[in-house]
Design brief:
The chain is α/β, with parallel strands linked by helices. About 50% of the residues lie in helices and about 15% in strands. The protein has one domain: Deoxyhypusine Synthase (3-Layer(aba) Sandwich). Helix 4 links the parallel strand 1 and strand 2. Helix 11 crosses helix 13.
Length: about 350
């Protein structure tokens, strides 16, 4: 490149007087620097994915996003057709069910006597409190639902759909996803209150000598791989990192091993994280590193925003809804029907 090529695009000072909406603000970030400009890029990449015909958008949700107040952000994105498949930690979905059935999280403080909280049966997530006695009641509800199922293997996707339809969850993530036909996969299901509830059911059923439903997480692998094979393109959007990021990114190598043919990587990728790549963990690894595994296609469009997710996620979501809401509403989810056919037993 020539010298003048490097000096072609000047930054543009942010003019708050010109900002009327969140989308205006994030659009203006495109002329600034650092993570604000990357947040702008993330909005544009999400918009490109929404404009792509036959593109399945996966949302990976890790961290304590629901206790942090992000439940309805996910609900709004699903209802607006900005998300087609959810891959979440069990903890987020457990807190989601808890809130969706009337449970509350409470404003707290990180500098507190945790021994005193334990004596009062109060759980803490950094600066947020929850009622452990209410959690125990929720565990029993999950156990009872699991006990009501026919005694056969279930994928987590299949069971979470049952939970969304059968429990009073009209305004929570699992309920809205069930109503909207959006599959929910939970590769960390057993590492959460959901798993605790199922363990209670297993224990009671085995002591009584009666057959019971079981969970088959490998069935989830088949289902999510077949879903990806049913569409032309895909996008991976990761709030945090962890297992949801890895699970969504490993769809390509999984398809390759299953079919003995090169699998399709994601064409679009977005991540909001505070993890850095130099620690060597998956949560902070760059998309370029993922490209070495063929988890992303050549020439992929990506944006990694190094920002705390309880700030970055709602900003990005609101900007996408404002800027691309009409485009998203016109999208069809017909490609999911083809995948559903492959899930039937």
């Amino acid at each position: 490149m020539k010298r003048e090529d490097y000096l072609r695009h000047p930054t543009r000072p942010l003019e708050l007087s010109q900002v009327k909406t969140v989308a205006d603000l994030v659009e203006a970030f495109g002329g600034t620097s650092f993570q604000s400009r990357m947040l702008h890029r993330a909005m544009r990449v999400w918009g490109e994915a929404l404009a792509e015909p036959d593109c399945c958008i996966f949302l990976g949700l890790s961290g304590a996003m629901v206790p942090a107040g992000m439940r309805k952000v996910v609900v709004d994105l699903v209802r607006a057709r900005c998300v087609d498949v959810l891959v979440s930690t069990g903890a987020n979905l457990y807190h989601d069910l808890y809130e969706g059935t009337g449970g509350l999280h409470y404003l707290g403080h990180p500098q507190v006597d945790d021994e005193e909280l334990a004596r009062h049966d109060i759980d803490r997530v950094y600066d947020t409190y929850a009622d452990d006695k209410a959690f125990q009641k929720m565990d029993a509800v999950i156990a009872d639902l699991a006990a009501s199922l026919e005694p056969r293997p279930f994928s987590t996707r299949e069971f979470l759909r049952e939970a969304g339809l059968k429990l009073k969850t009209a305004e929570c993530i699992v309920g809205v996803c069930a109503a909207e036909g959006v599959p929910v996969f939970c590769p960390t299901f057993h590492d959460s209150g959901w798993g605790i509830g199922w363990a209670r059911m297993y224990h009671q059923a085995e002591r009584a000598g009666r057959p019971h439903a079981t969970l088959d997480l490998i069935r989830d692998n088949l289902e999510i791989a077949r879903l990806r094979m049913a569409v032309k393109e895909s996008a991976g959007i990761y709030i945090g990192g962890g297992v949801p990021k890895n699970y969504t990114q490993q769809i390509e190598p999984m398809i390759e091993v299953m079919t003995d043919q090169k699998g399709p990587g994601h064409r679009y990728a977005i991540q909001i994280t505070t993890d850095a790549p130099h620690w060597g963990g998956l949560s902070g690894c760059t998309f370029e590193e993922a490209k070495s595994w063929d988890k992303l296609v050549d020439g992929f469009h990506g944006a990694q925003v190094f920002l705390e997710a309880s700030v970055g996620f709602p900003l990005l979501a609101k900007a996408v809804l404002e800027r691309f809401g009409e485009k998203a509403a016109a999208r069809q989810r017909g490609f999911l029907e083809g995948a559903h056919a492959g899930w039937k037993r």
